[in-house]
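Budget justification, computational time. The allocation requested in the original proposal was used primarily to generate structure tokens for proteins on the priority list. As evidence of use, we reproduce two of the resulting records. The first is shown immediately below.
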Amino acid sequence: MNILREYIRILLMEQVEFSGILKLMPDANIIASVLLLSEQLPPDAILLPDEKFHVTLIHQSVLKPYRKLIKSIELPQPPPPILEPTIEERIDEVQGKKSWVVWLQNQGEMKSYVQEVMSLLGAPAGDPEPDRKFHISIANLTGKPGDSVR
């Protein structure tokens, strides 16, 4: 029984993945919360596929020197994302893009996690992206993840 309980716990955990960027893939409970929040979206918003929901932890430009190393180390368990209760519209008029995001409440915890990962990689101390605000993009005008405001 304990093995089954542990297996279920692992299935429900957020997972950190490296795909050029380091991203936090939300668990089923967070996805369900995002889907509930999506009821606030305006008619022109097209929901992204829920398997594309993620929190970008570290941009690929920061990780480029550490690509080989990050694939070979075991990363620590990330803090669970805590969602704000509302969505926010983001607009890039120059590119003609509009997207909707859910911000995370626990920005400090996420920044600490990023710094821990960077330390494991042997990077210089400090915040590699001081302007990053952690969020989950949930919709845009096309429903394609690459069409969200950056």
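The second record produced under the same allocation is shown here.
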Amino acid sequence: MFFFIQSFSQETGKKELRKQKENTEFISTEALIDSMKFKFNASHALPQDGPSIDLTTNPNYLIIKGDSIYCSMPFFGRAYNVNYNDRGGFHFAGIVENFKKNENTKKMKIELKFKMKSPMDSYQFLMTITGSKNTSLTIISNKRASISYWGEIDILNK
């Protein structure tokens, strides 16, 4: 009986420590998002038609800085209407429109939705961020099939 009580109290202590760590990470992630100065780096691309693609050796980023967005992400999938001299992928900078943030404190997830228009295309973004900064990003374009990326957000360095 003594061993059962002792092991049960240790399990409870471990669960509490894990919960405290998750809460701390979520608060840190929430503060990073609220600062509107963060960078997303993708480790994998998930095209609509095809397998996951490893991007660890392929430089990419999506930066949110205030009301501005800077994007350089590779694209794998079907393009419906692109310019002849298009260098491929998503390469643009612009102003964020219709920024919406939804928090789910129970699941410790934050969802960001926003749009951006360029002279050549318009984009919709959906980011789902966990408390540990793991992030999924989906980009929907008028001229290309939608694509998702997995990676992490981090503090924007100068």
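A brief technical remark on that second record: The beta strands are 37-47, 53-54, 61-65, 68-73, 90-95, 97-104, 109-117, 122-130, 134-141, 147-155.
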